[in-house]
Every structure is written in structure tokens, then in C-alpha cells.
Design brief:
The chain is of the alpha/beta class and 239 residues long. It has 10 helices and 5 strands. Helix 4 links the parallel strand 2 and strand 3. The radius of gyration is 19 Å and the shape is elongated.
Length: 239
């Protein structure tokens, strides 16, 4: 089921978004709770939480942690799928049919469904089917459940039943550490000066910073050059 669902939804998990490289000391407690929740998928217990709601502002790493959750569950020999609500909105709600058979469903950016009655009802129905199958949901949003703007009270209620954790914004130091870690995994050396330059001259959200690092990685391979500030300026067209 996992492979077929991912094939239909064109889902491919980033291979560098796992728990080990989510580098944020301020969010250690939230990540630890998420890990414990996923470990519970291996135990048959009655009345344990079946949904984990994770929320925070853009750039705090919600998508990273959902991708990491799916990868972690796979190591537990459980099935999983990670779905983007942005992608779901381009599809029919029928794409959710049968997903309740998957052990852990990760649903990213649920705030994008707010006000869409058809999709809100579809996610509510999926939630109920998941409960019936004794499986699990990990859901992310940019606000607390009550502030998402969902118009289906029953869905708000369901999302409030489980565990909830809020992610705090990453500090500049944590962003630099994360960038340098990702660079090292690509065989690149990103100096403190170069990392600070990226942080100070580009958008500070991690998605944009990582996209810029990807562009620098490709250009570095193509031109066989080290990542220096002049090189960054040239590749990213920064004056």
C-alpha cells in the first residue's frame, strides 16, 4: 500500500530529512514526544493517542519532521505515507480511499484545507477510518488546531483528541548549524562566513536557505569550485 500510494501521489521523501539532522535544541522536547508517539505504533494498547498534531510558523521544520517520521516508521517495519495538502488540493478526494490501511499517515500543512468543505470532510472521514483500523496520523499546521480556520467542528474536535506540540523558531545559530550539516552531507565545506552571508542576504526561512544550498551544490559540482562568498554572489545573483 505504501508504494502504491506514493506512486499515485508522486511522493518521494527527501533522503536527508531524518530525525538525526533536525538540529534544534529548542525543539528537543517536541521531537522526543513525536518519537515516543511513533514508537507506540509497535505496541498494542487500548485508548492510546492515535493522532499527533505538530504546529509552528513557516520555516521551523514541520515538513522535515513529517518526512523524518515516515522514514523512521519504515525502519520499524511499518507502512507509512507522507502527504502534502498543497498537492492533495490538486487531486480528487478519492485519493484518500484505502489509506487507512497504512500504519502511519503524515499529513502536512492542513491549514491549506481550511474552508474547503469537501476536503475537510474527506480528512475527517479518513481520520475515523484510521481509528477503526488502529492506525496513526501525524498532522502539521501553522497554527493551533482552534486557530486553523477549519469550518468542520468535528474535524477540529478529532485533531484535538491526540497529542499536540508546538515548534519554536530556529535561532540563527541553529540555522547555520543545519546548513553546514547539510553541506557536509553533500561533500561541501560551508564556512561560518559563507553561512552567515547566506543568512543575512537571503530569506531567513529554512526552505529558501536549503534551496539556495542545493543550487550552490549543483553549481559547485558543475564548475568544480569551492563555496566562497564571491561564488555565492555569482551563482545566486546577489550584488
Amino acid at each position: 500500500m505504501k508504494n502504491s500510494a506514493q506512486l499515485v501521489l508522486s511522493v518521494q521523501l527527501p533522503d536527508d530529512e531524518i530525525f538525526d539532522n533536525y538540529l534544534s535544541k529548542s525543539n528537543c522536547a517536541a521531537v522526543s514526544q513525536l518519537g515516543l508517539f511513533l514508537d507506540n505504533t509497535q505496541q498494542e494498547q487500548i485508548n492510546k493517542p492515535r493522532c499527533f498534531y505538530l504546529f509552528g510558523l513557516s520555516g521551523v521544520g514541520k515538513s522535515h519532521l513529517l518526512h523524518a517520521s515516515s522514514a523512521y516508521v519504515a525502519k520499524l517495519n511499518k507502512t507509512s505515507v507522507c502527504l502534502s495538502c498543497a498537492e492533495l488540493l490538486t487531486l480528487s478526494v478519492d485519493v484518500l480511499d484505502g489509506l487507512e490501511q497504512i500504519n502511519v499517515i503524515c499529513l502536512d500543512d492542513i491549514q491549506l484545507l481550511a474552508g474547503n468543505k469537501i476536503w475537510e470532510q474527506a480528512v475527517f472521514d479518513l481520520y475515523n477510518r484510521v481509528l477503526e483500523q488502529n492506525n496513526y496520523l501525524v498532522v502539521s499546521g501553522d497554527q493551533s488546531v482552534n486557530q486553523l480556520g477549519l469550518t468542520l467542528p468535528d474535524l477540529v474536535s478529532r485533531l484535538s483528541w491526540g497529542l499536540t506540540e508546538q515548534l519554536k523558531p530556529l535561532s540563527d545559530g541553529e540555522k547555520i548549524t543545519a546548513l553546514q550539516f547539510r553541506a557536509s552531507k553533500r561533500g561541501l565545506i560551508l564556512s561560518d562566513d559563507a553561512a552567515n552571508f547566506l543568512l543575512n542576504r537571503l530569506s531567513r526561512d529554512m526552505a529558501s536557505l536549503i534551496a539556495s544550498l542545493d543550487a550552490l551544490d549543483k553549481a559547485s559540482i558543475r564548475e568544480q569550485r569551492k563555496i566562497t562568498i564571491p561564488f555565492i554572489k555569482d551563482v545566486l545573483n546577489i550584488t
